[in-house]
């Protein structure tokens, strides 16, 4: 308990008010929403098969599916409308690669953002003293930004395909009895997509957060600090050169004024002395 109190007292929670720490907390929170809404999804659809022989009909066929959306492994029993016979029908499509890739990126982003936030709070001084730590943080942020964009785009495309594959109207086409016009097939209700739609939204929101955080992490690297010092030195050098030029110009003007006065004074003195001297000699 004492150790925990010491860590809390030593932590610089003020960094959470800065964009560097505040965005990390948002990344941590939004990554939870991303993998929870996708990885924890389960859906169900229901269709009905009304045979000519009413005894063979099944008016409520429930089909359950969920993450990781290997639909080709999801099966259900449907009546064949022939002497009480039944068949096992499988859905079509395997979209596990896109879904698992999206959830994996979300989980690793959750772990990294949590680790980075802890370092900012409790080890901020060491983070600034070590020049490699901000550089690694910058590279990882850029990589995660790219991965969020790729995984969210891939999952959005896979989700649209999952919606088509689990459409009750499309599932009816897989049932042999529904191909006979004498039998009547219908859809009772389809899956709810609000959770998966939210996962796609959180995926692109995470991309925006990580991409926007690139600038704030870059400001902590030596590249930005070196460029800032170079720009400051260049501006000071330019200011010193301008001041020196102004000083030289002022000195030139002052000396020029002095010379002008001296030149005007010499002929005046010469004429005053020489005039009276030459007049008696002529006499």
Structural summary, described in words:
One of its GO terms (cellular component) is synaptic vesicle membrane. Its main location: membrane. Residues 240-283 are annotated as: Disordered. This protein has a 3-stranded antiparallel β-sheet. It has a two-stranded antiparallel ribbon with strand order 3-4. It has 8 helices and 5 strands. The protein is rod-shaped. It has one domain (14-217). The chain has helices at residues 2-10, 19-39, 96-122, 124-129, 132-165, 168-172, 194-218, 222-282; strands at residues 42-50, 58-66, 75-79, 86-90, 184-189. Mean pLDDT is 81; it is low at 230-234 and 254-283. With 283 residues, the protein is of the alpha+beta class.
Observed structural traits:
283 residues, alpha+beta, two-stranded antiparallel ribbon, disordered C terminus, three-stranded antiparallel β-sheet, 8 helices, 66% helix, rod-shaped
